[in-house]
Amino acid sequence: MSYLGKSHGDYECDRCGACCIHLAVQVFPPDESREGLISLYVIEADDGSKWLGYPEQYSCNMLQNDGSCQIYNTKPDCCSLFEAGSPLCQWARGKAGLGALHPKIT
Ligand code: SF4
Ligand code: SF4
Question: Which of 1, 21, 92, 102 is paired with 55 by a 20 to 30 Å CA distance?
């Protein structure tokens, strides 16, 4: 969910992609309305909820081989709201075997 490339407070996302691989990416109707590709790639669970990525099962379907997001400018709200340097960002980095994201030096 990046996420990817944004700055939040003292932290600047380094586009590691760990959040897009290791965190759940749930989408809602406004996300599908904004970006048509989401409806093509989304996976619907038995309870009707819709996901682009689901931990331990599959990474986000919009994550490209070069680590970029195929729908960066129209990504789901959960991605736009995600904060680099947050506990979930750091957790995903750890899960990916990466070191913690450190605050920017100003
Ligand atoms: S939609 Fe884009 S930013 Fe969001 S999790 Fe997928 S690849 Fe990452
Ligand atoms: S895990 Fe954190 S640093 Fe890595 S892409 Fe996501 S927001 Fe950026």
Answer: 102
